[in-house]
Amino acid sequence: MNGSADPTTWVHLDWVLVVAGAWLLLGVVGAFSLRRLEFVARVLFPVGGALALVLFGVALSAIGSGPEVAVLPIGLPQLPFHFRLDSLSAFFLMLIGGAATGVSVFAAGYFRQGEGTPPGLLCLEYHVFLASMALVVIADDAYAFMVMWETMALSSFFLVTANHRIPEIRSAGYLYLLVAHIGAIGILLCFGVLQANTGDYTFANMRAQQLSPFWASAAFLLALFGFGAKAGLLPLHVWLPEAHPAAPSPVSALMSGVMLKTAVYGVLRVTYDLLSVQLWWWGVVLLALGLAGALFGVVFAAVQADMKRLLAYSSIENIGVIFAGIGLTVLFSAYRMEPMAALALTATLYQVASHAFFKSLLFVGTGAVLHSTSERSLGKLGGLIRYMPWVAWVTLIGVLASAGLPPLGGFVAEWLLLQSFLFTPGLPNSFLNMLVPAVAALIVLVAALGGYTMVKFYGVIFLGQPREAKLSQARDAGPWERVGMGWLVVGCIALGLFPVQFIGIIDNVTRQLVSAGLGDTVSQSGWLLVPVAIERASYGPLVFLAGVATCFALAFVLVRRLYHGRLRRSAPWDCGFAWQTPRMQDTAEGFGQPIRQIFEPVFRMERELPTPFDAKPRYRVVVSDHFWHWIYLPVAAMVERMARLIGLLQRGRITVYLLYSFLTVIAVLMWVRR
């Protein structure tokens, strides 16, 4: 049963449900084609990508329409599934469809025999994962939301452990599943608070409740805990650098680029839709956790020697920046500064969209490198631009976007966020007016370190000389992989060149959540991006691109045509030592050494130092996470001790069990008598 304010818009939600059902059907077909790799990879995955493109188009069309609702009698008796499509859910559906289009097409050329899980079963898990993410963002009651949320967690767990024969991958999967379920408990308790003892768990009922500041804060903190566990927010981040490297690269791309955003969606849905009030200190908490996670993620990314772990820690950084943007939005909303809240929320959503495309592109790029070289260690790569030029050039687009360089989407997002921080002196709170400029400085530091990390990532993998002889056998990406990566490149470039148009799309979401938007302001300046006023700041991406292209053209003409007159090749400068080898290149560890020294208290380091008497001197540094030793290992030890104590009760003798029953009856009788 469907309904909306305008009956002509019913088709949007219908199409979303059709796409989700078609994904599930594709998964079932894959399960019946268990080991038919060619059929699964060359037919089912491209069809899944086409369905994702349909979802992208439907969501883009629906984002400016009114809310649409549907009630499907597929749940338990008296508990049907309620679905709702509004601007917020349409925006995240657009990201799911956009990123999944490129990743699914890439996966058609990526997946092959030897992944550990039969291709058909992998197809089932993959498309259930896609369908559950789409249904999460349109769920309109706690029951449907939790069913889809847990389906998303379970399907992604099986995808993470696709190569389950490796013990480390199984451990990473179990850790991910554990943290996901702990977070789900927080979300479930949040919904319990939001329904306010009415027994009605529909979101419509939750919107109607007027909770006191205490219970509203309890619901917010529970939501932050539950969704923060899924997003990898500090200190609930420990699963992310373990699970992302363990998963196949297309799965890592979807988890980092899309799945983490479902947690961002959950925080926005609870904070701005289901709760009727926002308190200023919520924003301070979000800012503190977001900035801590961003700084933590970027410094750990800078010292990694595994390319997928580097990207995983980079995702922690990006999520931290996004949560800091949400925190700034909450601050402005709490003080009824709607235009500034719209600016901060626009910057946050722009970062969400940009990250979905550039991080998916980076993960599929590492997947292409991994399949071609069978190496993940940065210390064994190098010079791949000679053998994998397509992968190198398209990955460069993702690197530049991640580093926040113009004219790509990452720059627009960070530029808008910094503009938001420039307006914080208008807050009616002297403490916040002193605090937020320091926060802005930390955002700039994180952005600079993020660029440093991307230079390391790209330079060590693709530039210089190959560090291993076998790298000369590397082959470039295949046709399916090129098409998938090309789609993601288009997304990165489009977000950078057309910010005015994309802000017009985001405007529908900001008006729904904070009752204000930038669309009218930016549209008045044509192709020039002016977020508030022309005298404050402006940015012209097309002008910048034209300037860069002109400089390159002039350099080409002046250097190649007028000065040299012809191409000349010579040996590079060698400092007087002509016998250069790949071992003389800077390594991943060398790139990270300054960060290790500057931020040494952040790391837990174990060093193996050589002595003058060693026949084969060896130097080794192992960098680990303090949170493992401060929180998780003590908790694990405590749980193990409790399990041993409880195990003492299980003696296996009937006399012991009768004694337990007798003592329990005595205790109950004594309690009743009191």
Shape: globular
**What composes the largest sheet?**
3 strands, antiparallel
* Amount of beta strand: under 5%
Number of strands: 5
What can you see in these coordinates?
Helix 2 runs antiparallel to helix 3, helix 6 crosses helix 9 and helix 13 packs across helix 18. Helix content is 68%, strand content 5%. The strands form 2 sheets. The chain has a 3-stranded antiparallel sheet with strand order 1-2-3. It has a two-stranded antiparallel ribbon with strand order 4-5. With 674 residues, the protein is mainly α. About 1% of the residues have low confidence.
Write the layout of secondary structure elements.
Elements (H helix, E strand, L loop, with lengths): L1 E3 L5 H22 L5 H26 L5 E9 L2 E7 L1 H24 L8 H18 L5 H19 L6 H28 L8 H6 L4 H19 L8 H7 L2 H26 L5 H23 L4 H28 L3 H36 L15 H14 L6 H14 L7 H33 L16 H19 L1 H16 L4 H5 L17 H23 L24 H11 L4 E6 L11 E6 H22 L6 H20 L1
Antiparallel strand pairs: 1-2, 2-3, 4-5
Helix pairs in contact: 1-2, 1-4, 2-3, 2-4, 3-10, 3-13, 3-17, 4-5, 5-6, 6-8, 6-9, 8-10, 9-10, 9-12, 10-12, 10-13, 11-12, 11-16, 12-13, 12-16, 13-14, 13-15, 13-17, 13-18, 14-16, 14-17, 15-16, 15-17
